[in-house]
TrEMBL record:
Core-binding (CB) domain span: 65-145
InterPro entries: CB, DNA_brk_join_enz, Integrase-like_cat_sf, Integrase_catalytic, Integrase_recombinase_N, Integrase_SAM-like_N, Phage_Integrase
Keyword list, A-Z: DNA integration, DNA recombination, DNA-binding
Species of the source: Butyricicoccus pullicaecorum 1.2
Stated name of the protein: Tyr recombinase domain-containing protein
Length: 404
């Protein structure tokens, strides 16, 4: 078969500094005329072909939606097949960590470098948050590629490894620490929150969404039901009727100390919520932080605050001494020489269940763990982190050898 001859267009010529050049003009992505030059028609033809292809790609990229537009569309598509709580989590992270960083860029213009730069701020957060944001980036750009919104997926080499700040495991509170914590906050707004964490093992979002219609104090076996979750959007509370997982929906028996605490609280309550704000409504995020400050201000952790003196903002550092009263508030006594987090209350509850020899399946149910792996990981760390338990277990395992 005879090779087909390539037809080269006829180009105009121009002499520059005594040298003959072939010339043509094309419109760039902005519609402006651009001149191309070459020494031969063949060279000019190749230049023109490459330039037109680049312009076509640039034009395509400009026609693609912005990251903000496509992310909102992607979130809408997810609403069809994910739980409300999951969608709420997606929406918060997409808007905060993707749209806020790259929202104005066109989807087709986003490079891997752009995404990695956007992830710098996320890398300062926990490893779990970093991982979830990376997964969202990959899901969104993969969907755009599959829908032919973009030609290339910039996230194919993006990885979650090594990103974010690893969270240190918080030890459960000892019996003595629990007693001191309860003494420190007794009579304060935080007391009921702390009791629900320590003796029902509820998550923060479960405590703050708990209503009295889910607390059953009459009868021989008082219990509560977990069926709502607290969430905030722009600092405003949102109470979700659908929980993140089916396992989170559970009935929890109340020990006598917690049942008595809730009975007394209910008698004096005018709200439908167990832990409300002053107006009887669920707490905002800021209000919850203030609620937890009742605990923080009673610890001996060094902290700083600012005051205006002579019109200037002056930083002051406080180094509390155990047993002393706060300088500016005689009602506050520094009585806690250990730090406490809301999640630590729940961890203490789970740890106490394990130390009381509650079987792993029951622990999984009461904790609301969807995966038995989560329960067993905690179980293994807690159960065999005590030398007395390990010795007893080993003794039982090898007792049969004694008779040999």
């Amino acid at each position: 078969m005879a090779k087909r001859k390539m037809i080269i267009p006829e180009y105009g010529t121009v002499i520059k500094k005594g040298v003959l050049y072939y010339r043509t003009r094309i419109k760039d992505a902005d519609g402006k005329l651009v001149a191309l030059y070459a020494r031969t028609p063949e060279e000019l033809y190749n230049k023109e072909t490459i330039a037109l292809e680049q312009i076509e790609n640039a034009t395509f990229h400009r026609k693609t939606p912005t990251v903000a537009e496509y992310c909102e569309k992607w979130l809408l598509m997810q609403s069809v097949h994910v739980r409300t709580t999951t969608l709420t989590d997606y929406t918060s992270k997409v808007r905060r960590h993707i749209i806020a960083e790259l929202g104005d860029k066109r989807m087709g213009e986003v490079s891997l470098d752009d995404i990695q730069l956007a992830l710098v701020s996320v890398s300062k957060k926990s490893a779990s948050v970093y991982k979830s944001v990376v997964i969202l980036y990959k899901s969104i750009f993969r969907a755009a590629k599959e829908s032919r919104i973009i030609d290339n997926n910039p996230t194919i080499y993006l990885t979650t490894k090594g990103g974010g700040v690893p969270q240190k495991d918080k030890a459960a509170l000892t019996d003595e620490q629990v007693e001191r914590l309860l003494d420190a906050v007794e009579g304060l707004p935080t007391y009921v929150f702390v009791m629900l964490g320590l003796y029902a093992g509820l998550r923060r979002e479960e405590i703050l969404a708990l209503k009295w219609d889910s607390v059953y104090l009459d009868g021989n076996f008082p219990y509560l039901t977990v069926r709502r979750a607290w969430h905030t959007e722009n600092n405003r509370p949102v109470i979700l009727e659908e929980l993140k997982t089916k396992a989170a929906e559970r009935n929890i028996p109340l020990p006598t100390c917690l049942a008595e605490c809730l009975k007394e609280t209910k008698e004096n309550s005018t709200s439908e919520y167990v832990v409300p704000n002053r107006d009887g409504d669920p707490l905002s995020y800021t209000q919850f932080k203030r609620l937890w400050q009742y605990v923080v201000t009673r610890t001996v952790k060094e902290r700083s605050y600012y005051r205006y003196e002579d019109g200037k903002r002056v930083k002051h550092t406080v180094t509390p001494v155990l047993g002393e009263k706060a300088a500016h508030n005689g009602n506050v006594v520094y009585s806690l020489d250990f730090e406490v987090t809301p999640h630590q209350l729940r961890h203490t509850y789970i740890t106490n269940l394990i130390h009381s020899s509650v079987d792993p399946k029951t622990v999984q149910y009461l904790a609301g763990h969807e995966s038995s792996k989560i329960t067993m990981d905690i179980y293994a760390k807690v159960k065999y982190n005590r030398p007395d338990e390990l010795v007893r277990t080993m003794g039982n395992a090898f007792s049969q050898w004694d008779s040999v």
